[in-house]
TrEMBL record:
Name of the protein described by the UniProt record: Lon N-terminal domain-containing protein
PROSITE patterns per UniProt: LON_N (PS51787)
Superkingdom to which the source organism belongs: Bacteria
Gene source species: Yoonia sediminilitoris
PANTHER family associated with the record: ATP-DEPENDENT PROTEASE LA (LON) DOMAIN PROTEIN (PTHR46732:SF8)
One Pfam assignment: LON_substr_bdg
Amino acid sequence: MISSTDLPDTLPVFPLPGALLLPRSRLPLHLFEPRYLAMLDDVLKTSSRLIGMVQPYDAPGQSGKLHTIGCAGKLTAFSETEDGRYMVTLSGASRFRIVEEVEGFTPYRRCKVNWDGFDRDLGTCEKDPEFDRPAFMSALNRFFEDRGLSTDWDSLSEADDELLINSLSMLCPFEPEDKQALLEAPSLSTRRETLTTLIEFSLRGGSGEEMMQ
């Protein structure tokens, strides 16, 4: 497990709309753009092997602007395909807050970051004592049917609270701003409440974009 002393002051960042990484979760990525292949080469030379996943704003007039809060993932697996792409896996380490973007000569973006306020990300799995799992699973089943989605229900039923909530937060087809709200939730229970609200709102025929305005 990564410790606070392993967290650098500056991170390479990968802006990717709708891609959510959470602490103690895993995110598979395909890297093929030259700038991100260069980033991968540089990250492999560091002791922390951390990449910051962050979402760009999608609103008009905010091209290139990044959300303040992202999540750093440790590069834990990678392989090269025959056509020169890389398949990598990031393991969520801790959320961070962007202080400022760092100017430099790298083809990818780098940011000075602050880790304060995210101590629980470096701890053990969170619990959610007030989680009403039967009611949640019932709503989730209706949501999946409504969206035409399929899943391994046995695995979901056996997953602990954090794995269940975080995996669904990452995988469900919500709008990027909704994904950001799930990332910024201060605790597992708050994330579960946000996730439940998004599911119920979708079942009522609304969109996450409407709800977040």
